[in-house]
Design brief:
Layout (H helix, E strand, L loop, with lengths): L5 E7 L2 E6 L4 E6 L14 E5 L1
Antiparallel strand pairs: 1-2, 3-4
Length: about 50
């Protein structure tokens, strides 16, 4: 996956925000499920990076 690739979209108060990769690499793990509630410090995605 290249840098700046869209990883996931979060929705809060009917506004959607895309979260993008900050560096190139492969997605190692996704720690959330669709419709999950998340907190500010939650780990959402792990990237094995270059």
């Amino acid at each position: 996956m290249p840098e700046d690739d869209l990883l996931l979209v979060i929705e809060a108060m009917k506004m959607e925000t895309g979260l993008y990769a900050d560096h190139a690499g492969m997605v190692k793990a996704v720690h959330v499920q669709p419709t999950s509630q998340i907190d500010a410090k939650d780990l959402l995605v792990e990237i094995d990076g270059a």
